[in-house]
Prior knowledge:
Elements: E1 7-13, H1 17-28, E2 35-42, H2 48-53, E3 60-64, H3 69-79, E4 84-89, E5 93-94, H4 98-106, E6 111-115, E7 118-121, E8 127-132, H5 143-149, E9 162-165, H6 166-172, H7 184-191, E10 197-200, E11 206-209, H8 221-246, H9 252-257, H10 260-275, E12 283-287, E13 304-307, E14 310-311, E15 314-315, H11 322-334, E16 339-343, H12 348-352, H13 354-363, E17 366-369, E18 373-377, H14 383-388
Parallel strand pairs: 1-2, 1-4, 2-3, 6-10, 7-11, 12-13, 12-16
Antiparallel strand pairs: 4-9, 5-11, 6-9, 7-8, 14-15, 16-18, 17-18
Helix pairs in contact: 7-8, 8-10, 11-13
Amino acid sequence: MSKVPLASVVVTSYNYGRFLKAAIDSALNQTYPHTEVIVVDDGSADDSRDIIAGYGNQIGAVLKENGGQASAFNAGIRLSRGDVIVFLDSDDLLLPTAIEKAVRLFSSGGIAKVHWPLWVVDEQGRKTGEVLPEGPLAEGDLRAAVLASAANGYTWSPTSGNCWSRAFLDAIGPLPEEPFRTCPDFYLAALAPLYGLLKSITEPQGLYRIHGSNHGWRAPIAERLEALRRLEEHNLKALSRHCRSLGLALDPELCRSNSWSQWLGQVHQAAQDIAALMPGDTPYLLVDEAKWQLHPRDLTLPGRPLPFPEQNGEYAGPPADDGSAVREFERQRMSGARFIIFGWPAFWWLDYYTGFAEYLRSHFPCILQNERVVIYHLREATRGLEKEGGWRPALSGNEGE
């Protein structure tokens, strides 16, 4: 990077004229003075080009035929001069300090990208209270995670929450345009850890707008899963090629087994399993380590799932031992839970909490067991339990740990 790094914000837009001015203004209003703004219009048929023309020489502009998002990224990279580059979706916004904070982290050298979370806003720009992603962003040397799971191996932010080094983009560019007409950030996220370290900013530095036109949200889950599988296969081919050139070993089958499409597909099938067994508003205990609902827009679980164990309405973490598990289970069962469901990949609970597992097997019927779920129906406990006057655990291997 140069002594005083130049940053480029590349705003990419397709028929989002109603949001475009706000996006451009947010890019122009950065506190970091060495920032250029490039706007790429990808063949819009609305008033986007009139809006772009109104900025004159405040921005650089690319007016092109429609080619998809990766095509727009490539066009923006070609025109830009920055040492670091942010791709800003035209329905999103950057907060004023985003570039300043990102450039500061790049100064340590060897960084492929800096990322930050985004506040979720509605169509009018009002915060919903959500943040994407929900969990902490990964940082450091993430090559091992990528070699095991591709882009699924670490937590990264949506498009507008990333600042990429030009050195990285030059090393892997140009982006493949046809397969990544949408979601080119998925491609970049998979490759970035091969070419440098990742740094994260804890505080949100942008706004992610949810509205009716967001790509793919209304498509059936089966269509989205198939599209995701295609993107993952393109990523695997690219990863294999780059790993060979860098002397790194990649196991494509391991990546496939850990893929996001595999995860979502399993949870989608599990949701259908659950829906077939219970009425719509049935309360049930869900043992999933709070993982199944990390992507609520990609799937909806039936009934009324309750975290197990629970504290203040949230998942409270694994129980200390069998006794703790059973006491919490009975508390929640007496409060109205009618089933307990162990969801893949939390089956290890049934092997580790052996006393708890035996308690369930002894007193409640298992109504479904497959590679996705183990479901117990919490009808009234057997007479044996009533005679015992409650459960008293024998010491097990994990008791008191």
